[in-house]
Every structure is written in C-alpha cells, then in structure tokens.
Design a protein that fits this description.
- The complex is a heterodimer.
- By secondary structure, chain A is mainly alpha-helical.
- Chain A has helices spanning 3-12, 27-48, 54-76, 79-85, 90-112.
- The N and C termini of chain A lie far apart (74 Å).
- Chain B is elongated and about 85 Å long.
- Chain B contains eight helices and no strands.
- Chain B is mostly helical.
- The chains are: A mainly alpha, B mainly alpha.
- Chains A and B meet through helix 1, helix 2, helix 3 and helix 5 of A and helix 1, helix 2, helix 5 and helix 8 of B.
C-alpha cells in the first residue's frame, strides 16, 4: 500500500479532520425517531392526566423524558455516531462522566438547599 | 526518495491531500472530529450548566412558593388572585395554572422542527440545495410558531396575575422559559442567516458542517425543552 493509499484509507475510516464519515441515519430512520418522540410525548401527557400521584406518576415521566433526551442527542445530534469515531474510550467516558457529575451536583443542590424565610 | 523512504511524488500527493482536507473541513483534530465541532460541543456543555442551574432554581423556588401558599403566608398570598392561590393550596402544586394541551402542541412543533433541521443537514450534505432551502425554511417557521405560542402563553399568564416580580414562581418560571425562548430566537436568526447564504448560492455541500453545527444548537434547544416540558409542566 502506498502512502497516498494509506492517507485515503485513514480518511475513509473516519479518523480524519472534520470528515466524520460514520454512517448517519437515513431519512427514513430520522422520521422513525421523530414518530417515537411524538409517541413518547403523547404517552407522557396522557400519563400526567391519569390521576396518578407520587412515584407512580413521576418515575415513568422521568424515564420517558430520559429516553427522549437520548433519542434527540443520539440520533438528531449524531452523538451516537460521533462518539463511535472519537479516538479511544477515554473521551467517551469523560463525556458521560461529566454529564453524570453535573447531574449529581444539581441533584445535591436541590436536595440540600433550604430557604431561610 | 524522502528521508523516511517514501517516493517524493507520493509524499507530495499525501501533503496535497492533507491540505485539501484542512481547506475543506477546518483544522485537524486527533479525536477524529473537526475542532469547530468539538468546540461547539464544549459550548453546549456550558449551556447545559446554565440550564441545569435555571431548572434547579425553578424547582427550589416553586417548592418554596407552594410551601408558603399552603402555609398561608399572607405576603405570598397577596401576589396573585385568591382563586388561583386557593387552587394551588388545594392541589399543592402550580401545575393547574398551566395549559398542558397548548404546551403539548408547542412541544410537538419543536420536535417537528428538529426533524426538519436534520433533513436540512442531510439535504445539504447530498448537494440537494432545493431541499436545503425547503427544510431550513420549515425549521425557521416552526421555531417562529413555537415562539409565538410562548408569547401568547406569557401574555395569558400575565393577565391572570403571574408577574415576573410578583413572587418566586413568576420569577423562576419566566426566567427559565424566557431564557429558553431567547435561545430559540437566536436559533431562528442563525437559520435565517443560513437561508440567505443558501439563496445566494453560498451554502454548498462543502459547508455541510456549518449547517450541522447550527443544527446541534437547534437540537440542544429541543433537548432542553424536552426537560422543561416534563419537569416544569407535567411533574407536580
């Protein structure tokens, strides 16, 4: 293999510059993700009108919200595909670690904060 | 032959290929994505912290507000009409104040705009410039519809007695949803700029990453609304 061939190979295997060539979803897949998002939103709204209280109401809503969050971030923002081509696992772990850390900090603030009035 | 044993002409071809890639897509990144895209992800990370702080503040403020209403604090009760305060005290939540069907329709519109945005990116990547203009226009129009709905919602709430400086609920609600609305408005302006470029013929396939990055911003705004819709509007 010549050096030029190697350059092209590197380019085609997604380790080059801005050319993130990991296969993005097809148009049909984008529409499917949209339909799933709409369905989850409809179920969320219906669930909130069912008259449930406490954890029975809140936990399913939070689960559906999380699924919608990752569907938009993963498919529409191409995060699922971009994380595949970022070299090594360190960046992926750092990325999700930062999200978890930020979530934990906000949860701790919400749990511990008290108004003094 | 070069110092490392590669024929001079192949080495030159490799360098030319590298320069062509940098010219097309921005500077190199050892992570495999363009630096522009990585920098934008960092920016979105800081935006996550901003909205995380705003959502946390809303949750804390509303919890305190409802507690004060239930406890019958006269200073807090005087900030909104008695019938609304009675309903909040009775249900122990502010959710009865919201028009959920209307907000659900707004959510649908914003989700739809995320779909049209990815279709715009796909169209420009494939050199389908007519499709790019159609999908970008659709995204901007859907965003404008969402903002119109928010302005209508704010107007209704204001007339019902929920003022920005009235109580903690009003301050936190308008700050959180207002910041989100401001982000959507900035997104619409960026989409209009892209549309102008497209109509001038300056938005070609080699600028697909520009569309993708503005798309990232737009989807981020959508993701934040996914959180706000559930946490603010649906969960009591």
């Amino acid at each position: 293999m010549t050096h030029t061939d190697m350059a092209h190979t590197a380019h085609d295997t997604d380790t080059h510059h801005g050319h993130d060539h990991a296969a993005h979803p097809t148009e049909k897949q984008y529409w499917m993700v949209f339909v799933i998002l709409v369905l989850f939103t409809a179920v969320e709204v219906a669930w909130s009108f069912m008259g449930f209280e406490g954890a029975v109401l809140v936990v399913p809503l939070l689960v559906m919200m999380t699924i919608k969050f990752f569907l938009v971030a993963g498919a529409f923002m191409h995060l699922y595909f971009d994380l595949k081509i970022l070299n090594g696992r360190l960046f992926t772990w750092a990325f999700f670690g930062a999200i978890l850390l930020a979530g934990a900090v906000y949860a701790a603030v919400i749990a511990s904060f008290r108004f003094n009035i | 032959m070069t110092d490392i044993g590669i024929p001079v002409e192949e080495s030159a071809a490799f360098v030319a290929h590298e320069q062509e890639l940098v010219h097309e897509t921005g500077h190199a990144s050892s992570l495999g994505l363009s630096n522009t895209k990585l920098a934008f992800w960092l920016f979105l990370g800081s935006e996550c912290l901003l909205f995380g702080a705003l959502i946390s503040t809303y949750l804390l403020s509303v919890g305190n507000f409802v507690g004060q209403v239930v406890a019958g604090n006269p200073r807090v009760l005087a900030t909104m009409p008695a019938e609304i305060m009675n309903e909040i005290a009775e249900k122990g939540s502010v959710n009865s104040f919201f028009d959920i069907p209307f907000t659900s329709a707004s959510s649908f519109i914003l989700l739809m705009s995320s779909l049209t945005m990815v279709l715009a990116h796909k169209a420009v990547s494939e050199g389908n410039y007519r499709g790019t203009k159609i999908w970008l226009s659709a995204t901007a129009l859907l965003g404008a519809t969402f903002i119109s709905g928010q302005v209508y919602e704010f107007t209704v709430f204001y007339r019902e007695g929920l003022h920005y400086d009235g109580n903690l609920f009003g301050s936190a609600f308008y700050t959180l949803t207002g910041f989100h609305g401001a982000h959507v408005t900035i997104g619409i302006l960026m989409l209009v700029a892209l549309l102008i470029m497209a109509f001038k013929g300056k938005l070609q396939a080699d600028r697909a990453e520009t569309v993708e990055i503005i798309g990232l911003y737009w989807h981020f705004v959508d993701v934040v609304w996914v959180l706000i819709f559930t946490v603010v509007y649906l969960i009591p």
